[in-house]
Design goal:
40% helix, alpha+beta, 3 strands, 2 helices
Length: 86
């Protein structure tokens, strides 16, 4: 909530944002790309959908890409779990 208020304050005062990264957000299998931006003046962060034609309706991941993603996430979780135990 506080981050959102800071972002609104920056927008109102005309601060400029710069892109600091891209992540995927949303339910499994239908995640959308989200652009992370930070204010150049105070560092407040905000998320926004990428603009353009591709942002109107992104295609969901095909079945094989989704399975590959889930397999990598599972392997990563298993590696982290074994490190924490031992």
């Amino acid at each position: 909530m506080l981050q959102r208020l800071r972002a609104l304050w920056c927008e109102r005062h005309g601060h400029r944002y710069r892109e600091v990264g891209r992540i995927y957000s949303g339910p499994e299998g239908r995640a959308r790309e989200v652009v992370l931006e930070a204010c150049r003046v105070c560092g407040a962060q905000r998320d926004r959908s990428p603009s353009g034609e591709a942002a109107s309706e992104p295609a969901p991941l095909d079945e094989q890409a989704r399975l590959d993603f889930l397999a990598r996430a599972r392997r990563r979780a298993l590696r982290r779990a074994t490190r924490r135990r031992g």
